[in-house]
Structures are given as structure tokens and as C-alpha cells.
Amino acid sequence: xxxxxxxxxxxxxxxxxxxxxxxxxxxxxxxxxxxxxxxxxxxxxxxxxxxxxxxxxxxxxxxxxxxxxxxxxxxxxxxxxxxxxxxxxxxxxxxxxxxxxxxxxxxxxxxxxxxxxxxxxxxxxxxxxxxxxxxxxxxxxxxxxxxxxxxxxxxxxxxxxxxxxxxxxxxxxxxxxxxxxxxxxxxxxxxxxxxxxxxxxxxxxxxxxxxxxxxxxxxxxxxxxxxxxxxxxxxxxxxxxxxxxxxxxxxxxxxxxxxxxxxxxxxxxxxxxxxxxxxxxxxxxxxxxxxxxxxxxxxxxxxxxxxxxxxxxxxxxxxxxxxxxxxxxxxxxxxxxxxxxxxxxxxxxxxxxxxxxxxxxxxxxxxxxxxxxxxxxxxxxxxxxxxxxxxxxxxxxxxxxxxxxxxxxxxxxxxxxxxxxxxxxxxxxxxxxxxxxxxxxxxxxxxxxxxxxxxxxxxxxxxxxxxxxxxxxxxxxxxxxxxxxxxxxxxxxxxxxxxxxxxxxxxxxxxxxxxxxxxxxxxxxxxxxxxxxxxxxxxxxxxxxxxxxxxxxxxxxxxxxxxxxxxxxxxxxxxxxxxxxxxxxxxxxxxxxxxxxxxxxxxxxxxxxxxxxxxxxxxxxxxxxxxxxxxxxxxxxxxxxxxxxxxxxxxxxxxxxxxxxxxxxxxxxxxxxxxxxxxxxx
Length: 682
What we know:
Layout: H1 3-8, H2 11-19, H3 25-32, H4 40-57, H5 71-78, H6 85-105, H7 113-120, H8 126-135, H9 148-173, H10 175-178, E1 187-189, E2 192-198, E3 207-212, E4 218-223, H11 224-257, H12 259-285, H13 298-305, H14 320-335, E5 343-345, E6 357-360, H15 368-383, E7 389-390, H16 407-424, H17 441-444, H18 450-464, H19 466-478, E8 484-485, H20 487-490, E9 504-506, E10 510-512, E11 522-527, E12 532-535, E13 541-543, E14 546-551, E15 559-562, E16 566-569, E17 584-589, E18 594-600, E19 613-621, E20 626-629, E21 633-635, E22 643-650, E23 666-670, E24 675-678
Parallel strand pairs: 5-6, 6-7, 17-22
Antiparallel strand pairs: 1-2, 2-4, 3-4, 8-9, 9-10, 10-15, 11-14, 12-13, 12-15, 16-17, 18-19, 19-20, 19-21, 20-24, 22-23
Helix pairs in contact: 2-3, 3-12, 4-12, 5-11, 5-12, 6-7, 6-8, 6-12, 8-11, 9-11, 16-18
């Protein structure tokens, strides 16, 4: 909306009137920056929020007390600055305000979903509140009991102060000193306790002159008898000041530790203040809510969609995600044609993989049942023909017991996230996402914890498998392949797999078996028939066509490699093209003949669409024990003309786990021409 229109509407006056209903300085600031919106979704959301707030105001006024603008103080604490006692008390007041407002909005009797969603963003900082309340009074003074050291220091100061006063009072009343004093009072000069001595009597008074009056007739002298006590007093006061600073520094550190959450809570409180200000203003005006098609019938909704360029909108409504992805993709390729487009969306329609779109399953909940449901969700989605699926590892929304967990809930939180992480490392896209608590592995568990170490292992495993995974991605484009595969796709003749919903193939070689029960340390695994299977971690061989009880300690999930697989692995890397010239290890799993084609291209552009890619074919002959590396097909700019392959044979007699590499059967320098490698005697 242009400036002239806003001026004609007297928008500034509306903001000024609205600001009178805001309860906090933070809310008034948001009001001052408020602008109209033409986005229908934003307008609907704001109206719905205001409507909920109006209904809540009818029952009572939300507690917005304590929300001062302490953002600068919090930011200084975040940078290890030391706050004053008054600033700390104000921060604690803001923390208490956040707690009170959160509990008010999240009350079990409240049924206001939009306000509830805002209330969830408010933090509770009970530990900080209690620490400040123990140390600082309501008017911003450091309490004696802020620390045992401070209590002792202040007792010492008071005792020495009393000693000084007693000695001075004794001297004021001593007959032999009366004639030396200008007047019987105690004064201070330069922080020292002094008596006013007549200038002509200064030599008769035992003490040190700290000052003279303007007339020169009075010398302000510290008696020698109180000098040592005064020195002790000064030292005690210095120690008191040091302890006060230490207390303030420690409390400031606690503020710094939760600075991000505190600032987020203040932002949430400001937004809520704005929402309730709108509601209060609406109630003052006795205003009604504009109708944004919320009461339309289904038929009216259909009519409002139509007509479009193709006809009735209802026939094409579900295809909106496809066209949306296409629009973003086409425009992005036109703007930056040398970089691949990537779109992450929660909406899907058949064919949208053509437009660089990957779909995630939305804001799922952090529960064991949701973890299990994601397996079949991903498999079914992939079987629909869209290869790029992902989920929020760990679940986006969580139960309240995980927000400030005790040890029992913390243990479950860590194990749930780990099991989800282990599963997610074998999905088409590997991504962690969720609301607070933070989901980085160093926030889930400390570095020496088994959960952290297992997450790190699967992160490294994912990237060691990048030659395999990147080949699957290339195969998805060139051969219409699907990365996450229901067992029926590869073992259609085995009727047992038809009803298995908690196992899947990750590409042609890896059978993935997530663990979806808390404290489970083994699980039942069905190994499809017509194949032998090797334990990925140990190399132990199992016959197919049977169900086994697979070991599943906290740190691993059962993963099996199909006999006849050729599994390429690279070094540990941080990103895809970090070490393009690295040695590739080929794990050849004997028991059946096998094939694999290693794919590569320029990694970042679309030249592969014009044939700029390479394929290196591998085939294993079970009868004569040979691995054939075929002639390289294709070429692209910057490709490696020579590669080094290290080959490890895994069979019933050579149980080698992935990454152990204890026995290398052959190492070859490949220059693009065929090579045959004898791995075992005929």
C-alpha cells in the first residue's frame, strides 16, 4: 500500500490509538512498525489471532507485567558482559513475565490454538529467576545471603565499622581532647573517618591530616588509634566489592547462557502484546470480524476457484504443488542456469521430481509411533514414483516432558533421536529438523556419550557411502529409479515381503531395519528369499528366506547387504565433492553374481542433461571369482581420467565388516579401459 493511501486512511492515527492498548514497550514498538498486508494468508492469520484474543479477553486479561525492554542487557550478558543488580532484577522480572504469560496461554482450560502456538514460544527460566531472587532484592540491592563469602565479608565490614565508631565516640567524650577539637563531630575525608581539630592544636593531636577547611582554621585528622582499624575496614570493603562483582558476574553468566531463548521469549511476548492490543482495540470499537470466505460452502469454494485457464478449478486444485514447483524451478534456472535448483516442500503431486523438488512429511510429532509410521510413509511415497522424500529426523513437535526433561525423560529423548537419526541416514535426504530443544548432535548429548558417538558414526557412514548414493541419484534421473524401495519392488516373487512395513531397501544393496521401540536391543528381521545377506558391521553371512532375531544395541540398527552387491565407498568427507580424487573402496559381497555402475558428473550444473556424465560398470562373476571393471562410458569437463580402486571381497570365509578393511584383495589403477581382477581361485 503506497504512502498516499496510508495518509488518506490516517493510518498513523490508527497506530497511535492501537499503541494505547499495548501493555509493554516491546509491543508498542511493534505497533509503531506495523504495516498493512495484501497477503491473504497473513490477513487470515491475523484475523484469526485477533478473534481468539477477543474471546480470551472476555474471560480475563493476560498477565503482561514485568516485560521491560531488557534486550540490550541480555545481549551484553551474551557477550560476557557484567550486568548491574538492577539490570539483573529487570531481566529476572522479564523471565517471570514470560513464565506467567506462557502458563496462562497454555492453561488446560484454554482452547485457542493460534495463541497456544505463540505461547509455546515463550520460555520458562525458573533456575535464573530463583538465582536472581536469592541474590538481589526487589529494589535491586545485593542481599547478604547472595553467597556465604559475601555474608562473611559484610559481617566483617559491619564489625569494623562499629569498632571505628566506638573509638571515635570515646575520643569525642574524652576530657583531655575537648579543647583540641573545633566541634565534637565525626566526618569523612577521602573515605577515612576524621575529627575536626583546631589548626593550632594539630601538633598536639595524634593523627594524620587528610584535609583542611577553606579558612585553614580546621584540620580534619584521622586519629592514630583508629587508623589500623580503618585500614582493616577498607580491606574488608574491598573484599566485599570483589564478592559483589563475582556474584553479579556469575548471575550475568546465567543470563548469557539462555540469552537466545530470553530474546526469543521477548519477541514472542511482543507479538502477543500486539495481538491482544488489536483485540482490545477491536473490543473498544465493538468491531466485527471481516469475513475471509470462512463460511463458504464447498460449492461456493469450487465456484471461487473457477474458471481458470483449463476450466473448473476443482479438477486441478490438487495439482497446485506441481505447478508451484515448476514455476520456482523454471524461474530459478532462467536466473542462474549453471546451478541446480533444490526445492524442499511439504506438498506433493505426481511428477514434481522433474522440478528439483523434494518432499518432507510435514510437522510430525516426536513419538516412537511416529518414528515407525515414517518408514511406511517414505516407502509408499517413493513407490508412487517420486524418489526424493525426507522427514524431520527426531520429529518436529514434541511432548512437554521433553522441554525441560528429568533424567528419565532425557534418556528417552536421546534414544528416540538416535534411533530416528540412524533410520534417517538411509533415507533419500538426510536432514534433522524440529522446534526447541535444539537438534544438533552436540545439543542432544555430550561428545563422550554413546548417543553422540553413534550419531557421528552414521553421519560419517552416510558420507562414506556418497559414491553409492550419488550413483542412485543419477540413476533416478537417467533410469527413473527409486532410492528408498519397498521390498516388493526387488523381491516380488517372495510373498512374505508383501506385508512388511518396517524394512526397506536403500538402493539395490542395503536392507535397512530401523528400531522403533524404546530400550529395544534386538528386533525381528525378515531376510528376503533368493539371496544371501551379510551383516554390514561384521560381514557375517545369513541365508535368505527366513526371519532372524537381529542384534540392535543402542549404537546400531540392523543393516544387511545383499549377496552379489558391489558397494562403493569413499573416505570420510564433510561435503559431496570435498575429495573428488580419493581412493574408492569396492566391497564385493560374494554368493551371487552382481553388477553396479558407478556414476559421476560435474556435481553442480545441468550438463548431464546433454550427456556430460560418466558410468564405470562393475560386474562380479561368482563362478570364477573375478571382478570385471568395464570400459568407462561418457565424459565431462574436469572428470578424473585415472582412478584408484581398492577391492575387498566379503564371503562366508572372509567375514569383513564395512570400514574394517583388514584384508584388501586387490588395488588397481583404472584409466578407463577394462580390467579383470581375480579375487579368489577358480
